[in-house]
Design brief:
Distance between the termini: 19 Å
Number of helices: 9
Strand order of the largest sheet: 9-8-7-6-5-4-3-10
Radius of gyration: 17 Å
Oligomer: single chain
Structural class: alpha/beta
Largest sheet: 8 strands, parallel
Shape: globular
Number of strands: 10
Helix content: 40-55%
Length: 241
């Protein structure tokens, strides 16, 4: 599977999350693989403004793009109803390489799916729990629900309240590494997951570019340097790139 020109599943892929500010040194941004556009955090959600940002990013950096209009219930910056979110996805889909819609927004997810199929874009079905790490059986159900709907990737971002929570998510990642997953453990205890789970089977890992969008999040550049230190294959590919 690929997002744009970025191949998934061979070595860790690092996503840099953008909240609207696109002025960053090229030599630093070149270290990451793609951008996530957190459109819900932009100063306006007008399509003209969003497309201007997208065109600027393509012109300056040439990175693949993931569009996310996060729901307020799962950590979005503002309340945007599903009809409006659908219109945003519909308008930007031809300009990006993938989109992220929450599993809890099942109606929206089912509406966006055929758009992604027609345009041959990757669809990520995501789950965010800012309170706890569910038991393994519930995590497995999230994966089966996302795949049943038709998502290409299921993203699971949960919160670690103990080292046992962190261990459970890491174990789950290893066990299900062939199912097309992104796994993240949020919070201070879970910070290390942003380095460990992509090495052990998570397709991608997220870091911020301009400002954190989740508790325990590292900058994308910190993640890159840690992966270079702890994953020899990633470091070799990085040097060649």
């Amino acid at each position: 599977m690929r997002i744009g020109e970025v191949e998934l599943g061979k070595i860790p892929v690092v996503i840099g999350t953008l909240s609207g500010n696109i002025e960053h040194p090229v030599e630093i941004v070149n270290k990451i693989d793609l951008f996530e556009l957190r459109i819900d955090t932009f100063k306006t959600q007008e399509v003209a403004y969003i497309t201007e940002i997208i065109h600027s990013l393509k012109r300056v950096y040439g990175k693949p793009l993931l569009a996310t209009v996060r729901s307020k219930a799962e950590g979005g910056a503002i309340e945007i109803d599903d009809d409006r979110r659908y219109e945003i996805y519909k308008e930007v889909l031809t300009l990006v390489d993938a989109v992220d819609v929450e599993l809890s927004s099942s109606g929206l997810l089912k509406r966006v799916l055929p758009l992604c199929r027609r345009k041959e874009k990757v669809l990520i079905a995501s789950y965010h729990n800012h309170d706890e790490t569910p038991r393994e059986r519930q995590l497995e159900k999230l994966v089966s629900d996302g795949k049943e709907i038709g998502a290409d990737i299921v993203k699971i971002a949960v919160t670690a309240n103990s080292k046992e929570d962190l261990s459970r998510l890491i174990s789950f990642t290893i066990k299900n590494r062939d199912k097309g997953l992104i796994t993240i453990s949020q919070g201070k205890i879970g910070t290390i997951s942003r380095i460990v789970t992509p090495i052990l089977g998570s397709l991608m890992t997220y870091g911020y570019i301009d400002m954190p969008s989740a508790k325990g999040q590292l900058s994308a550049f910190e993640i890159v340097e840690h992966l270079r230190l702890f994953d020899p294959e990633y470091n070799e590919r990085f040097k060649v790139r």
